Amino acid sequence: MIICHPLKLIFIKTKKVGGTSFEIALSSFCDETSVITPISPNDEKTRAELGYRGAQNHQQQVWPDGTETAETLYNHIPAAQAKAIIPQEIWDSYTKVTIWRDPYDAIISRYYWEKADAAGIPFGKFVRGFTSMLTENSQIAPLDGPDALDVYLRYEHLEEDIAALGIDGLWERFSGLRAKGAIRPRSGADPETLYTLHPAAADIVAEQCAAEIRKFGYKRPGTAPAMAKPETAGRSDFIFTLSAGRTGTAWLAQFLGDNLRIRSVHEPIGVEDFGTAMPEISHMRRFNTLGMDGVTRKFWRNKLASLQAPYAEANHTLGKCGLIEALADSSIGSRTTVIILRRDLAKQCASYVGRNDFQNITIPWQWYLDMGYTNVIVNASALRKLGQIGWAIWYALEMEARYAYYQIKYGDQINFVEAKLEEATKPEGAARLLAALGHHGVPVLPEKKNATVNQSEVTEALTSEIRTLLGRLNFDPVAQATAYINAGRTLDGAARRSAAA
Questions:
Q1: pTM above 0.85, yes or no
Q2: Neighbours of 499 (CB within 10 A)
Q3: 453: exposed, middle or buried (C-beta count within 10 Å: 0-12, 13-18, 19+)?
């Protein structure tokens, strides 16, 4: 992002819209007090070669009225967060600008940027598995509400819209740049071709991005066959949850039971349950050390064989000791839906820290993940020195990478549905979740479960600190998971067993 004081302009950077090129061009108008957040080393080199200002004042600021702050502003910072940092007079008086792109085209750009094609993931599977990517930009730069911006430059009409800003020379400087370009193949990667081949992907984009499609008048590409619209989601016999914990799984279990009228379990933690219905520490550690060895496979065979449909379980430990692998290898996999349940990452991590979840090693062994495990997707070395906060952040990011890993590897065998706690606990979001599960009607919303009783445990300052750290990392779970897979690695340990043989 950029806060350009000479132009009295704030640029909020969305994703896959040419934002880096726009930042480089805009930085040429900045003075020594303007805020410029860092971009990639190669792009910073381009900016320096052009003689433009580089990253500056993104951690400490001196505002035009002389006041000073020490806040961290970063690439792709959401408008709401930037608004909370920037003095109100500046936010209110400056022109707030972002770039918006046709979502049908933007997700294609994201598909090739994440190298999903090289990983052998069909475009339709990518869109179906990563619907959260379709709504990222609306979370960064909302189209309406108190955090809406002033100007939405249309990617498809940038020359016209940039000219309308009235900044002499900005278009000329921008149009000569191609930061992060030339990723997409020259043929066969246009919207008409891809959505003709994958019409269901167009349906997903239309549903997820309905507001921006209406606002900007985007048209559906591709030829939609007469029966292209997919059938209403079918009801699964079994529902499980892939989640990190402290993400609302207790609430989800109650929600599923109340609305689906089926047996819905949170965590079976009776005396006789551990080792049979509930994985014990040995199962968690074995899977994350040895993969799907004989002991772990036996646990899953017995557990899955004991279940009677219809059945739901929101137990977050299952996804960390072979749930997806076991389902894919079982007779019920095709009859199962797995809900990937997320929560605001900063609040999630702050909850772990506030509860001291990573102080006693037996807690991560039973409920979370050990930073010392060797078979992990996210390298923990840079976060170790941050203590509990570093462990909490590493764990949350490792789980994000595992969600991506499982969707990439098993998305054609198991039906994944994505949900976010902050949305699912509201009527509209709850209705969307039920529809994705094949159910309709007015949702019943339970009270919160397992919420932090003493809110002082999770202070705003701690959450803000963690949010800042997360922003600096600029983490991409799909890229992490893809690199892990391309290196021939697997969470189930198959690659290691093959090498040993």
A1: no
A2: 8
A3: exposed
